[in-house]
Amino acid sequence: MENLLYSSCNPFEKNKKPLSEKRTSLPLVKAVSHSVKDGKPDTYVFTGDIDAMWLRDSSAQVYPNLHFVKDDKKPQQLVAGVINHQTRCMLKDPYANAFYNDPQKVGEWAKDDTDMRPGIHERKWEIDSLCYPIRLAYRYRKLTGDVTPFNDQWKSAITLMMTFPGIVHATES
Predict the structure, then answer these.
(1) What is the residue-level pLDDT of the chain in tens, covering all 173 positions?
(2) What gap in Å lies between CA 69 and CA 80, rounded to an integer?
(3) pTM of the model
């Protein structure tokens, strides 16, 4: 597993190289753990001080890298890995919004009144937690033409999301 720390490309920071000179430092990604699982890229993005990956935040965190995915394999693999990781998370629990990289980790909300399971940080269903991964996947596909993340597992996740009671109730109101 390759652990990568990327610094932001904040134009207001002094003594920073221009983005064109920082191709090994992808913009706006705080910290990621990138590996290959089942022959596919897998990227876990922890976006804050808690070692958990929020679906919405991880999508937003890597979204600026979409500007580079057409011409550069490194950000393409990074984003494809996020899509793959999010897919597994959504299949694990479409009601959860934050997950641990360790599928056996039990967090501080383990005794919550909901159906908490190992690997889940919190279960706070929000429609944007499901919409952001779709937005990221759509834009990735449009820019790269790469369909490899959109396998049967991804289709199952999308089907589950679209038939999930929270989605049905939100669209009926």
Answers:
(1) 444 434 343 333 444 443 333 344 455 556 788 899 999 999 999 877 889 999 999 999 999 999 999 999 999 999 999 999 999 999 999 889 999 999 999 988 888 888 899 999 999 888 888 899 999 999 999 999 999 999 999 999 999 888 877 655 555 55
(2) 10
(3) 0.80
Nearest CA to 82 out of 141, 136, 128 is that of 136
| Strands, sheet with 98-99, edge to edge from the N-terminal-most edge strand | 53-54, 98-99, 120-122
Q: Which residues contact 4 (CB under 8 A, 6 or more apart)?
A: 31, 32, 33, 34
- Domains of the chain, start order: 2-166 (1.50.10.10)
Could you say which DSSP state residue 10 is in? -
Q: How far is CA 21 from CA 17, 24, 65, 152, in A?
A: 6, 8, 15, 39
